[in-house]
Design brief:
986 residues, mainly alpha, 5-stranded mixed beta sheet, 10 strands
Length: 986
């Protein structure tokens, strides 16, 4: 016959008071209660073990003492009735809170009041029974779980019935609202395993079947059930004058950041099949229906079984299970486990490690061994021993440890009804926990706890001895579930992240499979494996947060991740390169985020070893364009190729595989080829619509940095389109003939659009035509005769300066030769040196007045900067014919860079050292400009610049820091300015 459990049968000295002072306070509270409750007064009068127990309990738990003082009837009931019937009646009270009374459905506030009143009484009586050792920890957790299930089920029934009464849905049977409703409420975690702790919150997930027929329109299901779940949370967790029932968490549902509180069954099954994560598999081991349509809940879990328990124990399954292990820190450190402040749930040797020990092996073997598919931790350990997966003595030791730690956890929470698992830091408060557990002193408790923790830690760490923990020696790095792990935040801070909580939340998004790149199980496994190295590498980049955020943008745009993650895992330099981009070059990071295809080229093993020459780029462009199907496809391919190759040239520059001068030449070769390909495509389109023009010839002249092979990553292109035709022809030969001016104007406009019109893949280049004859006032294209006449008779000095950098980029060869001849002729004409000197000096002064330099880092505009160096070279070229002997031809600088032109003309500089000064400054300013234009959009502000960029430009300038580099820029610019002034004074 089952014995009746009563508090008045409590053993003597099961617990002892915290102190005499606290005992007096507790006794005073009991006497106050005795004034209104006769049974309590009688108990105090009789004395004995029950009185001693209650004095001790109230001295140790302020929460229990305060609850009894506020609600004396709770104590009277606890000592006057058998415990189990009292608890059962309170569970029934909670479960029936939804039921109509005299035909009237209770209001939401009435349901909330009943549930809170029952919970307070239930928790009070159960805590006393637990402290009195009338119940074991296992029985306590089971009682708590039963009450939680009753509360959730009652609230759900109330909400369904209310929706039925308001006409939002039609129940199968209003007397049993949940039956046949298709609304599934699963208890997860400790609620699902019937292992709730004393002050636990509850984890639930809610699904619905919109096709069961209770909704007028199934399309309204998400809105109706979503609103219902918000009310459910309010009913259960809002604090009122009566307290609260349970803190309720619905974040274990599929992709909680982007899904409603209630998810359709079909959507959930699709999610788990395609994107379900390791931690979700582990979570569903304990899942069970607790409310709503129980039959539908059981059926849903059956459908989910293949996701939770894999059928075969193959490599992929093992790798998947091991990836869970890598997301929980295996503490292999030495030294004693500190009792003070220890987290008995998440800390070393804690509850979580025992649960994981069981769940991991359940996931591995549960597919083949249904007996292992059990929710309760103790039962799971026993089943593993029965199946000979673990030794029986291990199961026994871990079971004993589990319930001891659960006892400790309950005592911690009973003190103030707080959801905490951490032991106190002070001796006085630690003594409270020790006494609540029946220990004589803190030392005895500490010894027992340390022994338990070490046993668990030892067994847990042997689980996968060959597996490398995710920590990688750096500390905790846990990104499972929906909440931040405090130790992980600490590790992230130590690695160099300033906002660890934000970074942790972002990384959890990666693991949730919300991005296309991380949707597959395999991709997430690879990501998990590379996470320690990735976070460490980004952490070393100083502004780690910014760099990791840029990587997040890249990841978000990536169409797939498995190849990249696998390559990074096998190729550490690739990870280093990615970190370099994210830490040093926001502009490049933005490019790969918006156009992830550019990243494909980085996977080429020969990337850094091959210099991007014209021939190298030409072969790749021909191959890439060979598959184009039509005009628009060809233009799209030009844009894709332009973005990818500019990016790859930039990567070589960023990593110092090529110099700034090499980069300028590579960017220019790329531009030449792209303009040529665009011109070919445009001519084909024009000829299709308008035919050819008799004798028609076209050539494109590059000006400015395009002409002198000095383009940067962000340069636009300065072009002049030249043409010629048979003067006796009046129109083109096609079905829609055009006269010469309209024909070549339209061709030019189409070329500009082909290069600069925004399309799905962006633009090839921005095009600038302002250097054409007569500038913006002149026609967009110039006939070769008009061009020659203008340059000989009308051009200003600044236009002849621009002509010193002109170069034929593509087009008809004979027309190009004519243009070259005109350039040579114009630049060979004996100049008016005085006028040119005056014009150049005035032009530089006007630029200084209208466009003053922003700061010392404005290399183009600072006195003695790039404009001064370019002006020196152009000026020397213009006056060269006047300084040449009568029989000597002036130096031909056609197709030369500024540096090459200076070397060719340097003998005309006032002092011997001036050439070296200009070349040294040009090299440094070019190198820095190329790097900065590559890495950032807009101006360079030293105080806001990414740390990696600062380090890169310091290396480029061979300077230890930015201050030294700034001094070098000032020195060289000052010397160049002196050269410029001397040249202008001659």
């Amino acid at each position: 016959m089952k014995s009746v459990k009563r508090l008045d049968t409590v053993s003597a000295d099961v617990i002892r008071p915290l102190s005499q002072a606290e005992a007096k306070t507790a006794l005073a509270a009991l006497k106050d209660i005795g004034q209104s409750e006769a049974s309590v007064a009688q108990m105090l009068k009789e004395g004995g073990a029950l009185k001693d127990f209650l004095v001790a309990a109230f001295s140790l738990s302020p929460y229990l003492r305060d609850t009894a003082s506020v609600s004396p009837s709770f104590l009277a009931r606890a000592i006057g009735e058998p415990v189990e019937p009292a608890l059962s009646s309170l569970i029934e009270k909670a479960r029936s809170a939804w039921r109509p009374v005299d035909g009237k459905i209770p209001s939401e506030s009435e349901v909330m009041t009943v549930l809170r009143s029952a919970k307070r009484a239930f928790s009070f009586i159960l805590a006393l029974a637990d402290l009195a050792r009338i119940f074991t920890a296992k029985e306590t957790t089971c009682w708590l779980s039963e009450f939680a299930q009753a509360s959730v089920a009652s609230a759900v029934d109330h909400l369904l019935l209310a929706a039925h009464e308001s006409g939002k849905l039609k129940l199968v049977d209003p007397a049993e609202p949940s039956r046949g409703s298709g609304l599934i409420v699963l208890g997860m975690g400790k609620l699902g395993g019937r292992e709730l702790n004393y002050s636990s919150d509850i984890d639930i997930v809610v699904f619905f079947d919109p096709e069961v027929g209770i909704l007028a329109d199934p399309l309204d299901a998400s809105e109706i059930y979503g609103r219902m779940m918000r009310r459910l949370i309010r009913i259960l967790q809002d604090r009122t004058a009566d307290g609260y029932v349970f803190r309720t968490d619905l974040r274990l549902r599929p992709d909680p950041g982007s899904t409603p509180l209630a998810v359709s069954m079909d959507a959930a099954l699709i999610y788990y099949e395609g994107r379900g994560q390791n931690w979700e598999r582990a979570a569903y081991i304990k899942a069970r229906p607790v409310a709503g349509d129980m039959a539908a809940g059981d059926n849903f879990l059956k459908l989910l079984t293949p996701f939770v328990f894999r059928k075969y124990l193959d490599y992929a399954a093992i790798a998947d299970i091991h990836s869970i292990k890598r997301q929980i820190h295996v503490h292999k450190g030495h030294g004693a486990i500190a009792v003070k402040g220890h987290d008995v749930k998440l800390g070393r040797g804690g509850i979580r490690e025992i649960e994981f020990f069981a769940q991991t092996q359940q996931l591995i073997a549960g597919g083949r061994m249904p007996a292992l598919r059990t929710r309760e931790t103790e039962v799971a350990l026993g089943a593993l021993a029965e199946a000979k997966w673990i030794k029986p003595e291990i199961a026994t030791a871990l079971t004993e440890a589990y319930w001891f730690l659960r006892d400790v956890e309950h005592r911690i929470q009973m003190v103030h009804d707080e959801q905490t698992h951490r032991l106190p830091d002070s001796n006085s408060e630690l003594k409270r926990i020790a006494f609540m557990l029946g220990f004589a002193d803190v030392a005895a408790f500490s010894a027992r706890l340390e022994s338990i923790l070490k046993t668990v830690e030892r067994r847990y760490s042997r689980l996968f001895e060959q597996e490398e923990g995710l920590s990688g020696g750096e500390g905790n790095l846990v990104f499972t579930g929906q909440k931040d792990d405090p130790d992980t935040l600490k590790t992230l801070a130590e690695l160099g992240y300033e906002r660890p909580a934000d970074m942790s939340r972002m990384i959890r998004t990666w693991h949730s499979g919300r991005y296309r790149a991380t949707q597959s199980v395999e991709a997430r496994e690879r990501l998990t494996e590379m996470m320690p190295a990735l976070l460490k590498a980004f952490g070393e980049s100083r502004r780690a947060d910014e760099a990791l955020l840029r990587f997040d943008s890249f990841l978000k745009a990536l169409p797939a991740g498995i190849q990249l993650f696998s390559l990074i895992g096998k190729n550490p330099p690739l990870l280093s390169l990615i970190v370099t981009i994210m830490a040093s070059a926001p502009r490049l990071a933005d490019i790969i985020a918006s156009k992830p295809h550019v990243f494909d080229g980085m996977l080429d093993p020969g990337l850094m070893s091959e210099v991007p020459t014209r021939d190298y780029l030409s072969k790749r462009l021909d191959t890439f364009l060979s598959g184009s199907r039509h005009y628009e496809d060809r233009l799209d391919r030009l844009r894709i190729f332009a973005a990818e190759q500019r990016f790859l040239i930039g990567i070589r520059l960023l990593t110092a595989a090529i110099s700034g001068d090499d980069a300028g030449r590579a960017f220019t070769h790329l531009a030449d080829l792209l303009i040529d390909a665009a011109l070919t495509a445009v001519k084909g389109e024009i000829e299709t619509a308008h035919g050819t023009y008799p004798g028609g010839r076209v050539a494109v002249m590059g000006m400015g940095k395009l002409g002198s092979f000095e383009l940067t990553a962000g340069s636009d292109v300065d072009l002049i389109l030249l043409y010629d035709y048979d003067s006796e022809a009046f129109e083109s030969t096609g079905p829609k003939p055009l006269d010469a001016q309209r024909y070549f104007t339209r061709l030019t406009q189409r070329l500009i659009a082909a290069l600069s019109a925004p399309m799905a893949e962006g633009v090839v280049f921005e095009v600038d035509l302002r250097l054409r004859p007569s500038g913006n006032k002149g026609p967009v294209a110039s006939r070769i005769i008009a061009f020659g006449k203008y340059q000989r008779e009308e051009a200003w000095t600044w236009e002849h300066m621009a002509l010193t950098r002109a170069r034929i980029v593509c087009g008809n060869e004979s027309l190009g030769d004519e243009a070259k001849a005109i350039i040579s002729e114009v630049l060979a004409t004996k100049p008016d040196v005085k006028k040119i000197t005056t014009d150049v000096a005035e032009m530089r002064a006007l630029i200084a007045e209208e466009k003053p330099p922003r700061d010392i880092w404005d290399f183009k505009l600072i006195p003695g900067g790039l404009i001064d160096i370019e002006f020196i070279a152009q000026y020397l070229r213009l006056i060269a014919p006047a300084r040449a002997g009568s029989k000597d031809l002036p130096v031909d600088t056609y197709g030369l860079s500024t540096a090459q032109a200076l070397k060719a003309l340097g003998e005309d500089l006032p002092e011997r050292a001036d050439l070296d000064t200009c070349l040294e400054a040009l090299r440094l300013f070019t190198e820095l400009s190329q790097i900065i234009r590559l890495c950032v959009d807009g101006p360079f502000y030293a105080k806001d610049a990414p740390t990696g960029l600062v380090e890169r430009i310091c290396r480029a300038g061979d300077c230890p820091d930015l201050v030294t580099l700034e001094g070098e820029v000032k020195r060289l610019s000052g010397e160049v300015r002196g050269v410029f002034e001397r040249v202008m004074k001659r």
